Amino acid sequence: MHFIIYSGFDRDADISVVKQIQKILDNKKATYSLASYRESGFVGMSYNKFSDVVGDADVVIVVGGDGTVLRAAEGITEAGLETPIFAVNRGQCGFLADTEPEDFDKEIDKVLSGGYELEKRTALEVAYGGKTYYALNEVIVYKKDITRPVEIEVFIGRDTILGAAKADGVCLATPTGSTAYSMSAGGSILSPDVHAVSLCMICAHTLMNKPLVLSDEHTFSIRLAKNSLDGLLMVDGDVKQEVSGDTAVIVKKADLTVNFIKARHHDFYERLVSKLAHWATPADDLHNDVE
To answer: I need a surface site. Which of 22, 29, 126, 149 has the fewest CB within 10 A?
Structure first.
């Protein structure tokens, strides 16, 4: 089993964890290489460009926060692969990166022995301007001019209109992305095992604006009205292209899934409260109320 250790290599704490993981893998006689989306030598370490070596990996060990996980997932799906991700948390939330550094030694033994679950997450395929992108979290069409909204139309297929509004943008999120930006924008939270997407307008100028939960078997068309200002196409937080009213952004469920190694069971609802507890009633208070 060959591992790729993937990181941004831009924080001392992350580099320290990478070195810790290297020592553990060396002791277990496991083979690995280092890779990043950054140019090699950024911090004086020797590592590969991820796109050059991603095809060599049996497992990608990601060291970083959820943003680093998203970058790794993008690199894997763009290569047409479904290589499993084993994510070690060095970020603030750790919703996707759910293994803590101190647990790595014990949990990597389960990976090496095959004693783990593989969690398959839905990805979205996005087509616009002759290019294709993959989103693990969300697809957003957003206003380009910060002071002026865009006029957005959303269709199932090309003809059945779901809604139209003057808004800052529209967000179409997977279950994975439903606890990220989509949640902040008022979208519905979806369990990872639900075969659906969450659709919400962002700051729509209307009294009739509600989030929708829709089957992920649909193909969606997002268009700017012909008289609308131009917008931006954003995929998992990265601006990809400018969008105009001439062509629709086409979004559908990808044939590929993004696969995560789970060396131990995690209850989604417990994690939802523990990771996002700043908007939830503390569990102790709930128990006190019941008693």
So the answer is: 29
Q: One of 14, 66, 168, 236 is an active-site residue; which one?
A: 66
Task: Give the predicted TM-score (pTM) of the model.
Answer: 0.89
12 is catalytic: no
Q: Are 44 and 73 in contact (CB under 8 A)?
A: no
| Residues constituting the chain | 291
Rounded-to-integer distance, Cα 86 and Cα 58, Å? 11
DSSP letter at 137 equals S
Select 2-116+263-290's CATH number: 3.40.50.10330, 3.50.50.60, 1.10.3720.10, 1.10.580.10.
3.40.50.10330
Terminal CA-to-CA distance of the chain, rounded, Å? 51
Backbone angles phi, psi at 189, to 5 degrees: -85, 130
CATH architecture of structural domain 124-255:
Sandwich (2.60)
H-type helices in 132-240, by residue range?
A: 181-184
